[in-house]
């Protein structure tokens, strides 16, 4: 028997609610250990420089920050690039991900050096979960229509980038970010996580209430499901650039540097 979309959505959310009952609370009630290292991972339509505003603030606070250059090829490749950076850290490390890289944080976050996780308007799947199916239970955000492909490589059109990805930035600044946009491979989108680090690590989530790339209600759902300490920012998808002070404060809290 075929399930219609509403029935599928109801069943999926019911299953997620059941999972929530068994997992929520671990992350929310665990106090993070003090960390001096922060590893930041970028998502689609960006490169490692998107963290520059946050990095400068973390360094000013005395933390060691490293931005991973996500290859945007396959999920295993992306996870491996992050794990190599994590292995170089000399102690407890906060792992931070924006957008798609929440997949990487969820998978690589089980690394023993990781003391806490921070999701910035990011995907936060459960182990083995079909994120695309989960996302379809919420209204599709406008940016999805702006993805264009050259063979197996995808990117956002300039119009969609300026309006739906970085809509709260000055146009001149958004165009600079557009210029360094890195294409992603279709194979990246088919990957599924095998671990859910947020089940066992203290987790934090920054919801972008004006997000046109990931549905804000989907962000809220994922944050609540993981029991994350959550803040909401009136921001586009790139809150790490438009609200770097608030994102930095959340990371410092995850690092046990402030309450």
TrEMBL record:
PANTHER family: AB HYDROLASE-1 DOMAIN-CONTAINING PROTEIN-RELATED, ESTERASE_LIPASE_THIOESTERASE DOMAIN-CONTAINING PROTEIN. The keyword Signal applies. It comes from the Bacteria. It comes from Bradyrhizobium lablabi. Residues 1-27 form the signal peptide. Coiled coil: none annotated. Residues 38-247 form the AB hydrolase-1 domain. Keywords: Hydrolase, Signal. This is Hydrolase. InterPro entries: AB_hydrolase_1, AB_hydrolase_fold, Sec-Metab_Biosynth_Hydrolase. SUPFAM superfamilies: alpha/beta-Hydrolases. GO terms for molecular function: hydrolase activity. Pfam families: Abhydrolase_6.
